[in-house]
């Protein structure tokens, strides 16, 4: 996202002129501007127009003050002017008994004395008020002098948020409060030792109506805290205060954590299978890893922890987050296939995390193996082998014969020794959830990797938004354990729910603290999920965000069915730009839209453009959750027109496809006079007789049409739901194969609004 810290907002402009935000909004509206809110960016035209108006009003006010001052002087001169004739001597007059004494008429001298008394009384009151103000000024001056005894100005510092955003320059001496995003007004007031009503009043001055239970985003928290003279430091995660700090004297050697990455079917699991001396592959369909695993391997007196990730996906959520808990990456490249697209993605993720890479060149015993070609291709990606004068360790291995496996393990331990990995085992456990699922008979089960500290059966824990108490601990060989220490993977049970892969895992003091952290995280997650849709980048919102100055470029991820289409689409879309914004293609590739693409889009605020491809079920679910905009096209110029219109603010109401259901073809029958009928199992959603269908084969859409027939057993069916089998005939199409996926969808018209 574009950094807006150096741009002035409307509420800041109002503050400069000492008026409220609503008043400034009204002034801007009178001058023909139409900002959306007080948080909108004040453009140069707005700033110049406001300055001009206030200068004009100052001149008018100055003339009025001069006129009033002149009139006052005239009146005062008339009041003190000497009388034109001498005052007559009063003659005593006899007053009859019983008659009231008449009130004496005041003379000019009496009126002058009375005016003089009033003037002196007013001067004394002004003097007393001035003394009070002077005392406050003296106190403030004294504090300033004491703070600057060194003769230099107060030190300044730049504070940063937990996400790396720059808050701005603040006084070093300003008190600091630690906050989470989306705390309530009442909680913020308590942290600043202020009354909730005062904070609500301040928000009202800044143009925001709020109650004491309303939750505030980080920008608003910083703004309000600044008004009360506080600096803000954002806490990365709720529960950080419960983490124990490691002690320098208690640090001991720990095992390295190694993540195995690489292209599908390049032999990652087979390599781990040989290392672990157990047949993992035999129990998995199609010799492809079906779940995320963490395994512990012993090499003489040393230990190595391996993380294995699903090879049939480009990059799952765990692989994207895996670099945060990984010490070393082992990049697996098959000698007979060389470098592939997912190999390049793995290199990008490892480099982004600053993790050292060790290359394992597998399948060297195959007839088509070409090790030198692999080394050359890796050198072109800035991974130069040590024996070629570079710094990258490359080991040739065979998972069948075991050639090079020992050397690979030795190289991992050598790299770990150079990194000097240490952890404190005396504190409470802290780590990361590697995998989690609901296991029959055991309830929520999580595979965790302890990074520091020690975990025991019975410890109260928090993982993500869930809490509990550890009931059982088992290792990767299903052996029961009582205690696990740093760099140790294990399965645990006892949590109240199933956390997500990548969530933090933390042992705390007691059950009460665990529940408090869990409840607080759940509240923040609900608030985040509620507010997230308003901040996501979609093609409909692009022009509004350009006008607000929120984005300077539209980031795109392009996926297509063939490489030629990728190149043409990338060239076409990269040339689209306006005077205010341009397109930036951050990833392009061949194949179906996967979880990796959605994760990158969510992290980069990008839009995914698919050409003749469709997202898989996991990617679709993740996109729905992360509010990522996925656009599918069959004609290149339609994609170009939509992007161009979005940048120009001309995007008309769009007809989008809403996913309804998906069924896997498990058998194909030929019916006389009817054609092919697919025997299907509905995997998700539903199949409705009236819905449109796509036939997807290997992640590519090969046909789009209508359902000709839908049957349950021998009976016609209007709808078949998830978990049931059915027979499906597709209108005017007879090339259905086992393994195809029939997806149904509805067309939804979305109206674009400027509000």
TrEMBL record:
Gene3D superfamilies per record: 1.10.10.2480, P-loop containing nucleotide triphosphate hydrolases, Translation factors, Translation initiation factor IF- 2, domain 3
Main location: cytoplasm
Biased composition (Basic residues): 115-128
Segments for region (Disordered): 114-135, 147-169
Residues covered by the Tr-type G domain: 253-422
Cellular component GO terms held in the UniProt record: cytosol
Region (G-domain): 256-404
UniProt keyword terms in alphabetical order: Cytoplasm, GTP-binding, Initiation factor, Nucleotide-binding, Protein biosynthesis
Subcellular location: Cytoplasm
SUPFAM superfamilies from the UniProt entry: Initiation factor IF2/eIF5b, domain 3 (SSF52156), P-loop containing nucleoside triphosphate hydrolases (SSF52540), Translation proteins (SSF50447)
Positions with a binding annotation for GTP: 262-269, 308-312, 362-365
Gene Ontology terms, MF aspect: GTP binding; GTPase activity; translation initiation factor activity
InterPro entries reported in the protein's UniProt record: EF-G-like_DII (IPR053905), EFTu-like_2 (IPR004161), IF2_II (IPR044145), IF2_N (IPR006847), P-loop_NTPase (IPR027417), Small_GTP-bd (IPR005225), T_Tr_GTP-bd_dom (IPR000795), TF_IF2_bacterial-like (IPR000178)
Family named by the database record: Belongs to the TRAFAC class translation factor GTPase superfamily. Classic translation factor GTPase family. IF-2 subfamily.
HAMAP family xrefs: IF_2_B
Record's function text: One of the essential components for the initiation of protein synthesis. Protects formylmethionyl-tRNA from spontaneous hydrolysis and promotes its binding to the 30S ribosomal subunits. Also involved in the hydrolysis of GTP during the formation of the 70S ribosomal complex.
Identification of the protein by name: Translation initiation factor IF-2
Organism: candidate division GN15 bacterium
Lineage: Bacteria, candidate division GN15
């Amino acid at each position: 996202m574009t950094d807006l810290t150096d741009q002035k907002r409307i509420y800041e402009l109002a503050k400069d002129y000492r008026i409220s935000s609503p008043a400034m909004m009204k002034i801007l509206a009178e001058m023909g501007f139409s900002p959306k809110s007080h948080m909108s960016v004040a453009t140069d035209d707005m700033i110049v127009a406001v300055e001009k108006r206030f200068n004009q009003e100052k001149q008018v006010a100055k003339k009025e003050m001069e006129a009033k001052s002149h009139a006052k002087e005239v009146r005062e001169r008339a009041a003190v002017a000497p009388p034109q004739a001498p005052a007559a001597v009063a003659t005593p007059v006899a007053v009859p008994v019983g008659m009231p004494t008449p009130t004496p008429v005041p003379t000019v001298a009496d009126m002058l004395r009375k005016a003089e008394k009033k003037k002196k009384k007013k001067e004394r009151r002004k003097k007393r008020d001035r003394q009070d103000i002077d005392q406050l000024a003296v106190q403030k001056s004294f504090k300033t002098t004491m703070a600057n005894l060194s003769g230099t100005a107060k030190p300044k510092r730049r504070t940063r948020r937990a996400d790396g955003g720059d808050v701005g320059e603040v006084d070093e001496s300003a008190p600091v409060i630690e906050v989470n995003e989306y705390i309530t007004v009442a909680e913020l007031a308590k942290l600043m030792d202020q009354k909730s009503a005062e904070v609500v009043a301040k928000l009202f001055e800044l143009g925001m109506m709020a109650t004491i239970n309303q939750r505030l985003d980080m920008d608003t928290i910083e703004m309000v805290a600044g008004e009360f003279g506080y600096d803000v430091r954002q806490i990365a995660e709720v529960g950080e205060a419960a983490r124990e700090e490691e002690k320098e004297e208690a640090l001991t050697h720990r095992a390295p954590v190694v993540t195995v990455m690489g292209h599908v079917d390049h032999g990652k699991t087979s390599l781990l299978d040989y290392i672990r001396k157990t047949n993992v592959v035999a129990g998995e369909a199609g010799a492809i890893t079906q779940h995320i695993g963490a395994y512990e391997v012993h090499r003489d007196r040393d230990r190595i922890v391996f993380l294995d990730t699903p090879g049939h996906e480009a990059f799952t959520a765990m692989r994207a987050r895996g670099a945060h808990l990984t010490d070393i990456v082992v990049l697996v490249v098959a000698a007979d296939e060389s470098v592939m697209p997912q190999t390049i993605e793995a290199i990008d993720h490892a480099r982004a995390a600053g993790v050292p890479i060790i290359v394992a060149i597998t399948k060297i015993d195959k007839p088509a193996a070409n090790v030198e070609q692999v080394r050359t291709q890796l050198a072109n990606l800035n991974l130069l082998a040590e024996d070629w004068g570079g710094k990258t360790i490359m080991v040739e291995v065979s998972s069948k014969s075991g050639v090079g496996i020992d050397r690979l393990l030795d190289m991992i331990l050598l790299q770990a020794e150079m990194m000097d990995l240490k952890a404190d085992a005396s504190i409470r456990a802290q780590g990361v959830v590697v995998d989690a699922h609901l296991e029959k008979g055991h309830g929520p089960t999580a595979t965790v990797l302890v990074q520091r500290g020690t975990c025991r059966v019975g410890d109260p824990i928090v993982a993500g938004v869930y809490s509990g108490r550890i009931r059982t601990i088992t290792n990767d060989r299903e052996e029961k354990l009582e205690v696990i220490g740093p760099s140790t993977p294990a399965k645990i049970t006892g949590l109240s729910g199933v956390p997500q892969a990548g969530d933090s895992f933390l042992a705390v003091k007691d059950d009460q603290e665990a529940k408090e952290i869990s409840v607080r995280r759940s509240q923040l997650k609900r608030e985040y999920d509620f507010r997230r849709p308003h901040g996501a980048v979609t093609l409909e919102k692009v022009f509004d965000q350009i006008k607000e100055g929120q984005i300077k470029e539209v980031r795109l991820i392009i996926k297509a069915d063939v490489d030629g289409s990728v190149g043409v689409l990338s060239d076409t879309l990269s040339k689209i730009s306006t005077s205010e914004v341009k397109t930036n293609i951050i990833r392009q590739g061949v194949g179906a839209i996967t979880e990796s693409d959605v994760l990158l889009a969510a992290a980069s605020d990008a839009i995914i453009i698919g050409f003749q491809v469709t997202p898989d079920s996991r990617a679709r679910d993740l996109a729905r959750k992360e509010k990522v905009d996925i656009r599918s096209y069959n004609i290149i110029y339609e994609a170009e027109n939509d992007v161009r219109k979005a940048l120009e603010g001309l995007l008309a109401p769009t007809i989008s496809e809403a996913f309804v259901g998906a069924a896997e073809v498990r058998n194909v029958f030929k019916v006389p006079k009817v054609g092919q009928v697919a025997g299907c199992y509905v995997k998700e959603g539903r199949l409705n007789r009236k819905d449109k269908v796509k036939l997807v084969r290997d992640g590519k859409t090969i046909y789009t049409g209508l359902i000709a027939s839908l049957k349950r057993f021998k009976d016609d069916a209007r709808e078949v739901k998830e978990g049931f089998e059915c027979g499906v005939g597709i209108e005017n199409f007879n090339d259905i194969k086992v393994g195809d996926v029939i997806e149904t969808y509805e067309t939804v018209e979305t109206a674009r609004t400027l509000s």
